[in-house]
Amino acid sequence: MSDLGPEIHQRLLAYMRDNGLKQTRQRQSVFDAFLATEHVSVDELLVEVQKVDSGVGYATVYRALKLFVEAGVAHKRSFGDGQARYEPVSQGEHHDHLICTKCGKIYEFEDDIIEVRQVEVAKALGVKLTNHRMTLWGECMDSAECERRPKGVG
């Protein structure tokens, strides 16, 4: 489990308790595999879950990810590849994304200058910035590594 795993696991359990949902072995398997991934699609997570629990099917993974989003422990993202991708939520943490248009690798980054500039631009336009999401697209500089990477690996 990642460093944020126990915290978001407690949030998930509290949400399920408050909504009359039970913690099942399958949900736990999906959750554990989810925490070990980055920017994962339903199909990709299914492969990972089935490595440890072959009885878990597509519908279970899909419903679990939907539950994680509703519980506020996962973000559902769309990076223009036609697939929804999911990542764990961390309180107070913000990052942006840069995606290679050739291999699909998703880089996470934080930049204080960009964050400050976004607020300045919004203010200059007469808007109080309350939230944002930035996604940039480009191509990996190491084209040999990019070509070896399976398409869509985040």
Please tell me about this protein's structure.
This protein has 154 residues and is an alpha+beta fold. The protein has two domains: 5-88, Winged helix-like DNA-binding domain superfamily/Winged helix DNA-binding domain (Arc Repressor Mutant, subunit A, Orthogonal Bundle), CATH 1.10.10.10; 96-148, Ferric-uptake regulator, C-terminal dimerisarion domain (Dna Ligase, domain 1, 2-Layer Sandwich). The protein has six helices and five strands, in the order H-H-H-H-E-E-E-E-H-E-H. A hairpin with a 5-residue loop joins strand 1 (74-78) and strand 2. The chain starts with a helix and ends in a 6-residue tail after the last helix.
What characteristics describe this protein?
154 residues, alpha+beta, Arc Repressor Mutant, subunit A, Dna Ligase, domain 1, three-stranded mixed beta sheet, two-stranded antiparallel sheet, 6 helices
Corresponding CATH architecture of the largest domain? Orthogonal Bundle
Beta content comes to: 5-15%
Question: What is the count of β-strands?
Answer: 5
What is the arithmetic mean of pLDDT?
84
Q: Helical element count?
A: 6
Major beta sheet summary = 3 strands, mixed
Oligomeric state of the chains in view: single chain
How many domain units? 2
Which residues form runs of ≥5 with pLDDT under 50? Answer: none
Shape: flat
Kindly name the structural category.
Answer: alpha+beta
Estimated helix fraction: 40-55%
Q: Write down the Rg.
A: 18 Å
Q: Please trace the helix and strand order, writing H or E for each element.
A: HHHHEEEEHEH
- CATH homologous superfamily name of the largest domain? Winged helix-like DNA-binding domain superfamily/Winged helix DNA-binding domain
Report, as a whole number of angstroms, the end-to-end distance. 19 Å
